[in-house]
From TrEMBL:
Belongs to the NAPRTase family. This is Nicotinate phosphoribosyltransferase. One of its GO terms (cellular component) is cytosol. It comes from the Bacteria. Catalyzes the first step in the biosynthesis of NAD from nicotinic acid, the ATP-dependent synthesis of beta-nicotinate D-ribonucleotide from nicotinate and 5-phospho-D-ribose 1-phosphate.
Length: 480
């Protein structure tokens, strides 16, 4: 968790390239890189950008101390002492623009723009992608779950099955951005101010002579927060009746049973039966929590079956992004310093989708003033004049440039915000609750067709004519 130790959280090839730049005397040349992804995860219609807070912490603490330098000395005999001395002076002195956490983002649009000495811009690729790819993936998975359970409480239960501690903790934060209500991880609660929640485990019941005794002892210990796990022996014959008994005892003390938790079996059937039993006992306010390898598909299916579940506890499938364990975000050089100017560069590929978009760009969300809804994102060259307001904008379909739509009255909202300028923080990042509310406002900008979890309508990402022309020119220049 100590961010200052993350300087060497990078691939060795970055340090090798930094070294080679230092040898050829180009380490101070400026370079611009963009981070973006090419394909949406989970077949979703959007992704939820996350990871910026950690990126900012990482950049602020980026430094090579004695320990790092001593280690590098052991890793490569070619590293010259002069290079290591240069590293001792290292700090991030560049510019970073990024979209806000919680923003809905789409393939091939710049999410982070780094302009810095190539020495710096190169080093940070690995860690930035690591943070952005994981946290964006988990926020997106959480958002899919939120789409199918918009009003119920969503509890994040994943830590024990997460890919180690950082994934659990930063993953919990990402799920909160996308609308989860709490995490079971107390360190995430302490670190980020996330609400925490907890019921009890089967071991609590197994560790007593009877289920009833286990429930009673638990209720005595935590009378204000009693949610009882009712499936250790037999949910309907023993768990729910025992929970009802304890609820009645709590009532006598002026307390209420908060809930019961179902963690196995047919959750639709059991929840309906449990609801009827609770209601019959006058416990209509007692909530039913369900867990057991849930994901957005099972939750949707359970709801379609009429399950009476008020609270969903979701662990493994969410925190490991089980159905797609990685977001393939990349970090590509888009411009480099040549003869004092920043010159656009391209990466060619046999696969047209993998050809990079050259030059430093701006990204705008085009919101139709008549409907208040997002029509498309528009990517243009930095400083390019396009009619921001007042005049119609022509939004080309990138795959079929003969197809376009015209929006007459619109607002162009810039997506990339300055975070560091010349190494200095120029804006405070919003607090987590602001990010969460902003995410909700973002969702409201999009038609439901783009938000549905199965076969969504693709939101349009469009490029300016100038950017497409530059790309064509560079492809032409590099074709033989
Ligand atoms: N009515 C239902 N419709 C669809 N899926 C369900 C339904 N009820 C439960 N499930 C899901 O089916 C899966 C059942 O998995 P599994 O067979 O391991 O659970 P189980 O029968 O409860 O056994 P265990 O006691 O080992 O947890 C879980 O992912 C659960 O969320
Ligand atoms: O299923 P997930 O979505 O990953 O949610 C977390 C799971 O972790 C716990 O089970 P576990 O068997 O680890 O512990 P327990 O003995 O308390 O049930 C809990 O009961 C959930 O089933
Ligand atoms: O509080 C719970 O019920 C819980 C927490 C973590 C994992 N499973 C369940």
């Amino acid at each position: 968790m100590c961010e200052s130790r993350l300087t060497l959280h990078t691939d060795k090839y970055q340090i090798n390239m930094m070294y080679a730049h230092w040898k050829q005397g180009t380490q101070n040349q400026r370079a611009a890189f963009e981070a973006y992804f090419r394909k949406l995860p989970f077949g979703n219609g959007y992704a939820v950008f996350a990871g910026l807070e950690r990126i900012v912490e990482y950049l602020r603490n980026l430094a090579f101390g004695e320990e790092e330098i001593a280690f590098l000395r052991t890793q490569e005999e070619n590293y010259d002492e002069g290079f290591l001395a240069e590293l001792e002076k290292f700090k991030f002195s560049g510019n970073l623009h990024a979209v806000r956490e919680g923003t809905l983002v789409f393939p091939n649009e710049p999410l982070i723009l780094v302009e810095a000495r190539v020495f710096e811009a190169q080093l940070i690729e690995t860690a930035m992608l690591n943070f952005m790819n994981y946290q964006t993936l988990i926020a997106t998975k959480a958002s899919r779950i939120k789409q199918v359970a918009p009003v119920e409480r969503l509890l994040e239960f994943g830590t024990r099955r997460a890919q180690e501690a950082d994934a659990a903790i930063w993953g919990a934060r990402a799920t909160y951005i996308a609308g989860f209500h709490s995490t079971s991880n107390l360190l995430a609660g302490m670190r980020f101010g996330l609400p925490t929640s907890g019921t009890h485990a089967h071991s609590w019941v197994q560790g007593h002579d009877s289920e009833e005794d286990a429930f009673r002892q638990y209720a005595e210990a935590l009378p204000d927060h009693v949610t009882l796990l009712v499936d250790t022996y037999d949910t309907l014959k023993s768990g729910v009746p025992n929970a009802i008994r304890i609820a009645k005892e709590l009532e006598k003390k002026g307390k209420r049973l908060k809930g019961i938790r179902l963690d196995s079996g047919d959750l639709a059937y059991l929840s309906k039966r449990a609801r009827a039993m609770l209601d019959e006992a006058g416990l209509t306010d007692v909530k039913i929590v369900a867990s057991n390898d849930l994901d957005e598909n099972i939750i949707a299916e359970l709801k379609a079956q009429g399950a009476r579940i008020d609270v969903w506890g979701v662990g493994t499938q969410l925190i490991t992004a089980f159905d797609q364990p990685s977001l393939g975000g990349v970090y590509k050089l888009v411009a480099r310093e040549k003869n004092g100017d920043l010159e656009p560069v391209i990466k060619i590929s046999g696969n047209p989708e993998k050809i990079s978009n050259p030059g430093i760009k701006e990204a705008y969300r085009i919101v139709n003033k008549e409907t208040g809804m997002a029509e498309a994102d528009f990517i243009c060259m930095r400083g390019e004049k396009f009619s921001r307001e007042g005049e119609p904008i022509k939004l080309f379909d990138p795959l079929h440039p003969h197809r376009f739509k015209i929006v007459n009255e619109y607002e162009a909202i810039p997506l990339l915000q300055p975070v560091f300028i010349n190494g200095v923080r120029v804006s405070e990042l919003p607090g987590l609750d602001d990010i969460r509310s902003y995410h909700e406002i973002q969702l409201a900008l999009f038609w439901p067709e783009h938000l549905r979890k199965l076969n969504p309508e693709m939101y349009r990402i469009t490029f300016s004519r100038a950017m497409l022309d530059l790309k064509a020119e560079l492809i032409d220049r590099h074709s033989h």
